[in-house]
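Mods, move this if it's the wrong board.
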Amino acid sequence: MSRAFAECPELSAAEIEAIQTMELSLPVVADLSRADALVYCRASTNQLIIVGEAKPWSVSAVHTEHMEGKKSDRKAEPVVFKSFDRQRPAQGYRPGMVMGAATTQDVFPFFHEGRMVAAVSFETNETVRNRHRRRSPVILKSIALLQEMALHNRIDLSKLSRTSERDSLLVVDAAGHIQYLSGTAESLYQRLGFRSNLLKRKIDDLGTNEAAFFAAMQVREACEFETHEQDYIFIRKAVPLFDRDQLKAVVLGVTDVTEERKKEHELRIKSAMLQEVHHRVKNNLQTIAALLRMQARRLSEDDAKAALVESVNRILSVAVVHEFLTHDESSEINIKEVSQSILREVTTGTMDPNKQLKIVLNGPSLLLPAQQATSCALIINELLQNAVEHGYADRAQGTIQINLNESAEETVIEIIDDGAGFPTGFDLERDSNLGLQIVRTLVKEDLRGQLCFENGQGVRARVSFPRKRVEVA
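Not the wrong board. Structure tokens:
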């Protein structure tokens, strides 16, 4: 429920529910009316509050700012107060200018069980209003009837998609004759092969897929279908209009979504191809890791064997990211889930089973672009390996924490152990092993971040880097 309703003590739960039901249909009505729709309720005798709003997609909105929750007095909203006081429709101008233009208001009362509980103001600037008035009387009468139906909760438009300025509009009477076509509708039907004037023609004689129209006539409700005709894909919407339960007409909206569907299809193919590539890369990396494991088992030198095992873990860290990209269509990777996979690999492949080492993963799920996620996977793997191998070489038990965190500006990853810590005199620049050198390079070059260590009762490694937003094409 809108917080603004809390400012309206005189409204009952049933009245609030009725207002909210009406509000669900307002976006479509606002589109067809080419006006902002604002819902006002009384906060007190001389104060109103906006409890809901719908801004049109068919024209630029008058109010660019968020209006819900805004309060006003009689001086600021004389036309809306006039409607409340007289409990009937009111017309006029909003005091002052909005974006340098006068704003016209057509205000209608909303009743529930005989009591006026709200007022709906359709607001637009004078230029748009004058253009709207020059439209065909047929569409103007249809919009007025639709407004009346919505304001009496006699039609549910909540499941219809929005109507933009490029949509085609038709009005068909109860006998099935076309009484109105917008300019875009004429162009659309011309593309389908109709060169002559379609006014007064019966819609079922056209041979086009008008399933939405016939469904709306049959079920007496607003309907929407996606249809395929020739080389085009359309979304067809139909809204039946009633006057005292008698069907007067049906407003049809047709949206050409051919290009959008083609792009969606191309993206699905691209996504499937990318997932297949990631799947093959993952399999190849796992094959290489298996070969290196076989090679490590044949070696007798401990240093060489350890070097191969470390290489295997690095390869598997990258494979983990490709595994997630195989199953996820998005371009973001949950680094917490990646960390859990790396944690399992380290637990089963590196840790001495005779030691009681516990690895704890803390923090929320963090979504990172694939490139950053790959670098973080390698960093987490290296720091974990380093802690296990060096921090607990002479210790039988301990705890390692992986802490994930983020703010609006940066992402932070910490690996904290209670092991032996760095030896006395350790210098990160001079004494880093290959693993720490890899970490330093990844943090500095790939993540453009900062790496720092705190050496005390164990080691705290902190990696921080700026958040990078994923660009959506």
